[in-house]
Structures are given as structure tokens and as C-alpha cells.
């Protein structure tokens, strides 16, 4: 239990002049600089918050500007507040990229969770020879930067005949999401109580049924955390689709993911003469992430930092 | 319940392990193999050249310059990010002292945490397009716009952030810090909250100021997390591929102006996909991998301290 401590200093504003009782070795300068430090540190926090929000707000605002305004000063305030620009961006390709991404993610996240949970569960709950080897085999994959494997991966996917296909990218996403998913869920399954599972087994439940009907429902918080992490991670994936989702021939359909399509449009001046639509496209790409993040921010933060905590 | 255990284990593991081995582990291993050949990427013909690719690397001036840039990032990125994140985490968790007494964060800590973390959930591709607009080399760019507004630069000669040989690397570094601080802030916050409140209160009773509390109590207890952060940031500093390849000028995968923004990852990709020197690119990948591993090991060893249990 923590005991509230009566602090002799009333409010941050007049913290400066009120000296605190302190021991001889505690330098008095800290008490004197309290007010200054307070102002400084609060100011710095606020400044950093502005530095985060300003560029993002600026992008959203820019989608309402005209080309001339965007080309001019950064400080012009948008004049026409119409959502027509978002429709234009959507029709210029963003809509297609958006749908591609949703289709791929619907399958890749579901499969990642299924396979990740299956592997993590078996590794966490069953003793068998080779258990540790397979576990470290999974965890090791998280250590290496993806681009090291890009060259052979490209040819692997090409040999499977899956370049620029949904199923190819889905399989690759699943494979590259497995290390973190297995690592996270492994520790999560370890913390779950064994009693329920044992009771189910005594009642004649099969291993498979025990997993799907007993353990998965109990593990829901962990699954939610890592699931959101996977949605964000795969939604934001850039280098994998860039390598694997290039058009193979002129007749090939464009299966670009949203991030990749957006960068291509920006870099190849696909929006030359229509900068507002580019900014609107970015807004469209950021919105789902923002919504997911704000609604689940506790789980997101827990999920992202989970792998790094002792 | 012992019966049918092994079929179940095998049945649950076979798909995830096969997928992972085929698409993740095998490509990584192949990278090692290809690094010993003169493979061009397009043809299936390749000859074993031993370590010639590796010796060629050391006399490659561009590679050495790229390496130097990675080392610069490696020094500055962790230091700046960790210092900022530690400062913010301390302010948001134990920095507030006024009012109710006890130990708590400054007012609005929860809001700050949500805002600071937000860049972390944005795709690196979105960041690239975003900063393309922020760093624009005229008054229409946000950064130049702000500087012009404050009267800090000459309207006739706006700063060309990404075209100036002396600035390009630091502009990239700024983006990495901007987007990374939130993550490490949350990481350190989680660790700070696991420190028993009584320790802070004891320090407070003994008359420790904020600065002293930070250096004598918080930092030693956070040492594990700081180490983890260091390793993660070192890996990020060795990468920087997406930002450099999209933001800096250059024929393929950026790196300009005149190699002043080059990092090893972009040089690798250019050799692989543009120059058709895939074997050479794989050798570069192996060198990057070992540099990362060695640096992580050194970082962990040098910063090792006696672990404080609490």
C-alpha cells in the first residue's frame, strides 16, 4: 500500500519560491529550479506533441487545398471544404489499393492467428523432444532484417508461380508474422491456468477440441493484443509487397497494396497536377490505422512492447 | 490423456513450421550460399567464387561511405532517442509532484502518451510520403514554411533538406527519432510502472529532487529496458532502407546526392535489382547481419551491470 505523502509545495506555479526541507547533501539548486524546470519540461512535452500532431494535421488540411495553394506557402488555409477530393483520390487508384489490402489482410491475419496460436499452444503446453529447438527456430526469425531474405524470397515466390497474387502475399505475410506471434502467444499460453484444460481432458475431450473450445476462448485477451499488432503490422508492410507485388506483364492486374501504391503514385508523379488528391489518399491510408489505434490503444501498446519486456 | 498426443502435436505444428521454414528460414540460408557466387540474379548460371565478394566489399568506396553513414546513425539514433524517451517517460510517470502528493505523472500524461506513440503505428511508406511534403525545398514545405514564418531563413534560399549533402543524413535521422521516441517512451513507461511506488516515496521522504530521483533510482532500475532499447535502435540504424530509398535523390533506391545519403541497405538493393550483382548483394547482406549481431553483443556486454532485483 502506498501512503499519500503530504507535499509541502502546493502548486507547480509557485513551486519555485517555496523551499522544501531537504537533507544536507541534497543540493538546494533543484528546489530553486523547480519552477523553471516545470515550465521547461511541460513546454517540451507540449512542443513534442505539437511536432507530432502538426505534420499529420497539415496533411489532412492539405487535401482540402488547391494545387496553387499547396505549391505556394505552407501556411495557406484551405478554401474549399469539399469531400469531392477524397472521391477523386479513391477513383485514381487508392480505392483499388485499399480493397487489395483489405482482401489480403482478411486472410493473412486470420491465418497468422490460427497457425501462430496452434504452434504457440503446442510449444507452450506439451513436452516433446525438439520442443525448445522449434521454439528458438521461430524466435530467431525475428532477429534478422527482412531485406536480407528478399533476394531468395523473390525467386522462391516466383518458382511457386505466386508473384503478384493475393495468395502469394498472404502466405509470405503469415510466414513473416509467425515469429512475433508465436513468441507472444507462447508466453501467454504459459500463464493460463492448467486446471480447466485438465478437467476438459478428464471429461474425454480430445486435444484438438480442448484447444479450440477451451483454451482459445480463455486466451482471448492475448489473441486480441497480438491480432491488433498483426493488423497494424501487415497493413503497414511496405518492402514485402514492393518486391512481390510488381506487375509481371502489361496484362497483369495491378494488385498493389495501399502503402506501396501510395508511394508509387507519389514518386512517379502519378498525381502530377493533383497534389490535393495525393494528400487525400494519405488521409485515407492513415484513417483506418488511427481508428484501430485509438480504439485499442492499450492493447496496441501492450502488444508492441510485449516482446521487449523481461 | 497420453494417447494420440504425438499425432496431435505433429498435426498442429506441421503447417506453421513448413510455411516458416520455406519462406523465412530457407531464404535467409540461401543468402549465405549466394554470397559465395557471382550470381547475377536473372540467370540460373552461377560460379563459386569463394570469398571474392567479401574482399571486393572492402575496396568499394561507396560501400565504405554507406558503412560510415550507418555507423553515424548507429551512434546518434540510440543516444538521442533513448535520452528523449527516458526524459518523457520520467515526466509522464513520476515527474508530477504537485497537488495530491505521492508519485504520479504530470497532468495530461495519458493524452501525451497516446499522441507520442502515434507515429509508431504509421507505415514507413506513409512516413516517407509525409516527410517528402514536410521537407519540400520551397516555402510550400512544412519545415521551410515554419522557418520562414519565424524569420529564421532567407525566402530566396530555402533549405533543401534532402538535396544538401551536409543535411540529408540528419534529415533522415530526424524522421527516425520523430517516429521512434513514442515507442521507447511506452517501453520505459511500462518498466517504470513496475518499479514499486514505495521506492520513489522513500526517495521523496529522504529529500531527493526530481533530478536525483531520476539518476539514483529510476535509471538504475530501468537498465534492462535501456539495453533492450539500445539493441532495437541499433538494428533500426543498420536498416533505414525505406526512408532513404524513397526520400533521397538517386537513380535507383536513392542514396544521393552523390552518395551522401547512402546506407548499406540501399546500396545492397541497388546492386541486387539494378546492377544485377546479386551475389555481391548477398555478401553485403551477410556483412550487415554480422555487424548487427556483433554490435548488439558488444552493446549488451559493455552496458552490462549487476541486475537489481526489486
UniProtKB/TrEMBL annotation, chain A:
The chain crosses the membrane at residues 39-61, 97-122, 134-157, 169-189, 277-296. It holds the Pfam family BPD_transp_1. Keywords: Cell membrane, Membrane, Transmembrane, Transmembrane helix, Transport. The keyword Nucleotide-binding does not apply. Residues 1-25 are annotated as: Disordered. It is a multi-pass membrane protein. Residues 98-296 form the ABC transmembrane type-1 domain. It is found in: Cell membrane. Belongs to the binding-protein-dependent transport system permease family. This is Carbohydrate ABC transporter permease. The lineage of its organism: Bacteria, Bacillati, Actinomycetota, Actinomycetes, Kitasatosporales.
From TrEMBL, chain B:
Belongs to the binding-protein-dependent transport system permease family. It holds the Pfam family BPD_transp_1. Keywords: Cell membrane, Membrane, Transmembrane, Transmembrane helix, Transport. Residues 67-299 form the ABC transmembrane type-1 domain. The chain crosses the membrane at residues 7-29, 71-94, 114-135, 167-187, 229-252, 272-300. It is found in: Cell membrane. SUPFAM superfamilies: MetI-like. It comes from the Bacteria. It is a multi-pass membrane protein. Its main location: membrane. This is Sugar ABC transporter permease.
